Structure to design on (324 residues):
């Protein structure tokens, strides 16, 4: 009897596993559709960033666009997903899980591929994450991608969901203006805030990350003036990682990342801005490898919240807004 129950359970698990395996193997959300690639190629210089992402990263590197037999009538605002440091547009590895969970969920809620967009930037290797910082190439590239989605879909407004470093890129790309880097500067044009309905920001580091004060990280590009250095708040002597994490410690003098300061001084990016984070994020390890893991979890587990926030401007739902 017990054996029977046991084997029935195993049998069910096996069936479930096969079923899930089948779904996973069958689901392919990327890359960009041929129709969208054709559109991008009409302005190859302007769209170079999206085109090179399409060419470089394969089927998990990009997604979005209409298929041959799809009508152009979007029901929803198009949504752009911007991944974080070392991540991918769609599932690439256990450390670079991309937006697959979100895209699957939005598709289940009747969003079409014509309404969901993403691309990949950077190395998709978590081991390199401390070497990456906010660059003009990524800012200008994301800005151009936003413009091309608006133009391709003829949408008046779009939504943006971004994770970690992707939030900084998306915020500045929408804000526009000139960004001053140590050895570079870029002009992003006028604000696009009037074209963005919702911005959902997941596990952002808008004031830097305390772990950047750790000696392993402090001199790395990801923790510099174009990265996520939290500064010492004028506490030159006791500006340590531990002190940075103490809630009660107020800031005497802002000296966090120059680019983050420029972004935080910029105009609001959207009609509705939501921020999601995890209370356990502060346990992030202090070395390179741990960076991003906990925040990726927030991203992967909040797909339903992302949907509800974008469609109803509330975490608890309510009457869905039919837009467009
Ligand atoms: C729509 O087009 C896609 C790819 O272009 C194809 O796989 C699918 O079978 C088509 N669906 C219908 C209903 O024609
Ligand atoms: C990252 O580093 C670890 C430890 O050195 C190594 O085992 C792993 O293969 C590296 N991952 C990638 C994707 O290179």
């Amino acid at each position: 009897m017990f054996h029977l129950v046991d084997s029935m359970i195993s049998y069910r698990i096996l069936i479930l596993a096969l079923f899930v395996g089948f779904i996973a193997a069958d689901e392919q959300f990327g890359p960009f559709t041929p129709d969208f690639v054709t559109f991008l190629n009409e302005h190859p210089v302007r769209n170079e960033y999206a085109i090179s992402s399409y060419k470089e990263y394969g089927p998990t590197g990009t997604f979005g666009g209409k298929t041959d037999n799809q009508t152009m009538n979007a029901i929803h605002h198009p949504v752009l997903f911007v991944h974080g440091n070392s991540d991918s547009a769609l599932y690439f590895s256990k450390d670079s899980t991309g937006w697959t969970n979100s895209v699957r969920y939005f598709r289940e809620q009747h969003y079409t591929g014509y309404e969901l967009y993403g691309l990949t930037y950077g190395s998709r290797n978590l081991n390199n994450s401390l070497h990456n910082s906010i660059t003009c190439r990524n800012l200008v590239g994301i800005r151009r991608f936003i413009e091309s989605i608006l133009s391709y879909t003829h949408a008046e407004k779009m939504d943006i969901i971004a994770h970690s470093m992707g939030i900084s890129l998306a915020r500045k790309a929408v804000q526009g203006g000139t960004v001053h880097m140590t050895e570079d500067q870029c002009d992003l044009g006028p604000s696009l805030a009037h074209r963005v309905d919702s911005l959902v920001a997941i596990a952002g580091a808008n004031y830097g990350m305390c772990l950047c004060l750790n000696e392993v990280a402090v001199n790395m590009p990801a923790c510099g003036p174009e990265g996520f250095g939290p500064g010492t708040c004028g506490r030159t002597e006791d500006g340590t990682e531990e002190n940075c994490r103490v809630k009660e410690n107020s800031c005497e003098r802002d000296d966090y990342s120059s680019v983050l300061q420029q972004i935080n001084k910029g105009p609001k990016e959207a009609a509705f801005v939501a921020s999601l984070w995890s209370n356990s994020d502060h346990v992030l390890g202090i070395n390179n490898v741990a960076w991003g893991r906990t925040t990726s979890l927030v991203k992967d587990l909040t797909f339903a919240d992302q949907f509800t926030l974008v469609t109803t401007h509330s975490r608890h739902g309510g009457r869905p807004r039919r837009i467009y």
